[in-house]
Amino acid sequence: xxxxxxxxxxxxxxxxxxxxxxxxxxxxxxxxxxxxxxxxxxxxxxxxxxxxxxxxxxxxxxxxxxxxxxxxxxxxxxxxxxxxxxxxxxxxxxxxxxxxxxxxxxxxxxxxxxxxxxxxxxxxxxxxxxxxxxxxxxxxxxxxxxxxxxxxxxxxxxxxxxxxxxxxxxxxxxxxxxxxxxxxxxxxxxxxxxxxxxxxxxxxxxxxxxxxxxxxxxxxxxxxxxxxxxxxxxxxxxxxxxxxxxxxxxxxxxxxxxxxxxxxxxxxxxxxxxxxxxxxxxxxxxxxxxxxxxxxxxxxxxxxxxxxxxxxxxxxxxxxxxxxxxxxxxxxxxxxxxxxxxxxxxxxxxxxxxxxxxxxxxxxxxxxxxxxxxxxxxxxxxxxxxxxxxxxxxxxxxxxxxxxxxxxxxxxxxxxxxxxxxxxxxxxxxxxxxxxxxxxxxxxxxxxxxxxxxxxxxxxxxxxxxxxxxxxxxxxxxxxxxxxxxxxxxxxxxxxxxxxxxxxxxxxxxxxxxxxxxxxxxxxxxxxxxxxxxxxxxxxxxxxxxxxxxxxxxxxxxxxxxxxxxxxxxxxxxxxxxxxxxxxxxxxxxxxxxxxxxxxxxxxxxxxxxxxxxxxxxxxxxxxxxxxxxxxxx
Length: 634
Ligand code: MV4
What we know:
- It is a single chain.
- With 634 residues, the protein is α+β, with helices and mostly antiparallel strands.
- It folds into five domains: 4-103, Rossmann fold (3-Layer(aba) Sandwich); 132-201, Dna Ligase, domain 1, CATH 3.30.1490; 209-234 and 246-450, D-amino Acid Aminotransferase, Chain A, domain 1, CATH 3.30.470; 454-547, Glycoprotein, Type 4 Pilin (2-Layer Sandwich); 563-631, CATH 2.40.50.100.
- Helix content is 29%, strand content 29%.
- It is built from 17 helices and 38 strands.
- The protein has a five-stranded parallel β-sheet with strand order 3-2-1-4-5. It has a five-stranded antiparallel β-sheet with strand order 27-26-30-29-28.
- β10 (207-215) and β11 form a beta hairpin.
- α7 (141-151) packs across α8.
- The chain is elongated.
- Residues 495-500 and 554-562 have low confidence and may be disordered.
- Residues 131, 156, 165, 200-203, 206, 208, 230, 232, 235, 277, 287, 439 line the site of ligand MV4.
- Ligand MV4 binds next to β9.
């Protein structure tokens, strides 16, 4: 086993790798950019080396700097994590040239999987099922079109160098073909500087099911079952799970064995993921192979009880696989939700800012939070705005999903916008609970997930009122405890002596006026205070709420020049105009404080206050006349 390794990454995956290395007694070296000077992964590592300024292409992606950091600290091996240099064949070469072990697959395997077309040719030769199509070197448009016509439409054009849906075009008829091919090639050139195209039969409503494989340098290979990553948004995974819903033992074994064949075809070593599309008939087709540890690997760890980073370190150090295939089993069900600093209501615009509040759900054997940030850290513009991966396990899918929803409702993040509400709505949506998922899930259930429907407001409004009154009750009790007169009736907050309390609340985009004639208590309701109001997590989904000052009016609406009464018991805190001074309709005359909120009393029309009956600091009973007002003649 290694004595010291360098982690060529940052954030949650760097912290995660350091944890396992530490458990194995392996010393760790972190690398960091200017922006990550105080980052958690730097604090966790035994040593750290500054490698450049904040932009990734001036730090984490600079091969020479990473290699230099490893050499100067005496690290024997480098773990690349995912992203950054993790699938960069040149980086692998330079590690080897400097006698540094690259904790990952051989260079040839990375190179072989770098092109979708080349990968498909290798897999076809290995007997791994492919989607019907063409992925040849002859890029004559007529050849590609003939293949499409022969397969029948719809077909999918894909860039061989592509990924994440870039350079991909669906074609529904021959008449569309030429334009679609041109567009796909232009996008491919712009994105990858390579416009080699392949064409496939377009599978409708497919599932993205991937198999975790592991191979050592002694020709041993196992699969650690599957993960379902179908729930994606614009080719970014949102929630992943293991095992995949609805996959039979027989299909699982067939896919696992096909994945092993794929790995063997490229003499694979280390952790790898073979991605398949599964169609509505239960047939599976090779999509691509990832030659790195995936972001979503924790769900596999939760159902198998294996530490995949430990496996990586052992295999890279020349050891044999820790388990044989018959020693691996699936236990229970796991989900991973990717918590992001982004605004789902602004088309998932990345959010930046300081994490003023950051409290994770209580972690235990069933709840795991992989994160690279702590309260007070800044989510910057330089890197992927993932805050954490929330991973949960339970004995079956239903219980695991309940645990996910509960954990999401317990997450407290303040200071920037997150996707937690979106994740909660997704996790509690009916079809997701039923396991009825495919790659189009989010688009197909957008209304339910984004919950912009006003209909929900009727459901949420009384809950919001209950939350506010509950919160006030709690504050009143706390205030009484701190008071020299704890039994004073002023500390009561149970609408004592008040007319029906009125509340004004913004719920999502709707503003509602509420007269609350009774507390509403609903089981399964969680209220989370945030810096912009409070969040309701209910069985009908997530609602962000902001309390607004209710418009109490004057109590003398329609009475021109009438006196103005106190809308409720309270304290007069400020008189804002002089007696006799001319005022306009709507001008603020005085401010009261009641129910821990300020209430303004405004001029009902143009005119002047002829007399104030109270002064600042006075306690005022609800309904008392506050002042005499003389309207100017219309
Ligand atoms: C497909 C497909 C349907 N039919 N290929 C999307 C990006 C890349 N991973 C491959 N992708 C797809 N390839 C055929 N022949 C549908 C997708 C697809 C998809 C696949 C997995 C997860 C999410 C997806 C979202 C949109 C489309």
